[in-house]
Specification:
Blueprint: H1 10-17, E1 28-29, E2 36-37, E3 48-49, E4 52-53, H2 58-85
Antiparallel strand pairs: 1-2, 3-4
Bound molecules: zinc ion.
Zinc ion (ZN) binds near residues 30, 32, 43, 45 and 48.
Length: about 90
């Protein structure tokens, strides 16, 4: 491994560090839902990237869960009504 010949001055260190600050990323509008999103990242609101559905959103998961619960409830109700008729 090479060893530096001269010590780096505080000034040179600080001059180099002036370029290390993180820049803020300007959000873009999602082409599908219009919500602000970071560029090159999946939209959290609708779960799309480049016009394709990539991830499930919370709303999708909740809707599927509710549908499943409703189906189970109706099945249970039918079962109970059959037992009552006997
Ligand atoms: Zn979106």
């Amino acid at each position: 491994m090479s060893v530096p010949k001269h010590r780096k001055t505080h000034s040179k260190t600080r001059m180099g560090r002036s370029h290390e600050a993180l820049k803020t990323v300007k959000p873009n509008a999602c082409p599908k839902c219009g919500a602000p999103k970071k560029p090159h990242i999946v939209c959290k609101e609708c779960g799309t990237y480049k016009g394709k559905q990539v991830i499930k959103t919370k709303a999708d998961v909740l809707a599927k869960r509710d549908a499943k619960r409703k189906a189970a409830e109706t099945k249970q109700r039918e079962k109970m009504s059959k037992l009552k008729n006997k």
